[in-house]
Specification:
The chain is α/β, with parallel strands linked by helices. Helices cover 39% and strands 20% of the residues. It binds zinc ion.
Length: 211
């Protein structure tokens, strides 16, 4: 079995377990596995409380696997303060119901680490679409984050050396919005690491998303 922990597209393939990302205003609770979050790109202070209520009303469904994607993005116009105001209640909901979180993080790694410490979060937190250097990776790993690789691993050869430094029990793979399949992401990562990742990612998936 192949595990795709972040995609926006339900492929309905029996060889893939995939966490389909959904937004609160358009949830399909029939999907076998999904995540729901308020993305910093699309946050709206007027609908925010309703969106949070939608998350809390569906979060206990067994196929609701994680809160997210949600996060912080310093490359957009919305201030970090407003973004935190929307992110923190989502993290607290995840903690309350013991669900993991899928994080979108752009140039705000230190802030995310601080929030995790300040709120004393115990739930697993996965940084999706990791694309940074090994120093950033190391500090996230040290603070207990999981890192998920996909698009940038296929596009950027420098990321191969970063991948080699990630402890295997903190690793996930994803396709997000790319055209390539999760099988292609697995074979790229397996080629870089020279290892069969299927049992490793399966164990990680079960530990984080199936408890
Ligand atoms: Zn995404």
């Amino acid at each position: 079995m192949h595990y795709n922990i972040h995609t926006h597209h339900f492929s309905n393939n029996s060889e893939i377990v995939e966490l389909v990302n959904q937004y609160p205003n358009e949830i399909n609770t029939e999907l076998p596995n999904f995540t729901v979050g308020i993305h910093p790109w699309y946050l709206n202070e007027n609908t925010f409380l309703d969106d949070l209520a939608v998350i809390e009303n569906t979060i206990q469904l067994p196929n609701f696997k994680a809160v997210g994607e949600c996060g912080l993005d310093k490359r957009i116009e919305t201030s970090i303060e407003i973004q935190k105001k929307i992110l923190i209640p989502q993290l607290l909901l995840a903690e309350k119901y013991k669900k993991p979180v899928i994080l979108h993080c752009v140039a705000a790694y230190q802030e995310i680490i601080e929030i995790k410490k300040e709120l004393k979060l115990t739930i697993p937190m996965v940084i999706h679409g990791f694309s940074k250097n090994s120093q950033v990776a190391e500090s996230l790993i040290k603070n207990g984050f999981y890192l998920s690789f996909g698009k940038y691993l296929l596009q950027n050869p420098e990321l191969e050396n970063v991948l080699k430094t990630i402890p295997l029990n903190q690793l996930f793979l994803e396709t997000d919005m790319i055209d390539q399949t999760i099988f292609e992401v697995y074979s790229k990562a397996e080629h870089v690491l020279n290892i069969n990742l299927e049992p490793i990612i399966e164990e990680n998936y079960n530990r984080v998303f199936n408890q």
